[in-house]
Amino acid sequence: METIKLQLVFETANGGTYSLYVDNPISAIAEAQTEIMDFANAITDNGVITTKNGKLVALKGVNIISRTVTPVEME
User: Fold this and answer.
1) Is 74 contained in some domain?
2) Is residue 73 part of a domain?
3) H or E stretch covering 11
4) Is 57 helix (H, G, I), strand (E, B) or coil?
5) 58 CB contacts (<8 Å, ≥6 apart)?
6) Within a domain: 16
7) 13: which residues sit within 8 A by CB, 6+ positions away?
8) Do residues 23 and 12 make contact, with C-beta atoms less than 8 angstroms apart?
């Protein structure tokens, strides 16, 4: 079974980083760059998330993470 996550990496007010994960993003992520940026800007502009290192201040990066899990049958 394969799972896919979208990782948004933010810089915090104190210079740290914070990752936000979105499960099962749409398959057309490349075409959704404007929406992803709008989402990230809404988070930073409105101070929606505060971490131990302060509020999120800027988007540093976006990653697609895919993971495949293959069950092994045991006798």
Assistant:
1) no
2) no
3) strand 2-12
4) strand
5) 10, 11, 44
6) yes
7) 53, 54, 55, 56, 57
8) no
Q: Which range marks the domain in which residue 24 is found?
A: 2-68
pLDDT of the chain along its 75 residues, tens only? 888 999 999 999 999 999 999 998 877 777 788 888 999 999 999 998 999 999 999 999 999 999 999 999 998
Q: Is the dihedral of CA 29, 33, 38, 41 positive or negative?
A: positive
Contacts of 33 (CB under 8 A, 6+ apart): none
Could you tell me if 63 and 7 are in contact, meaning their C-beta atoms sit under 8 angstroms apart? yes
How far is it, in rounded angstroms, from Cα 29 to Cα 62?
Answer: 10
In this prediction the pTM is 0.82
pLDDT for residue 59: 96
**Total tally of structural domains belonging to the chain:** 1
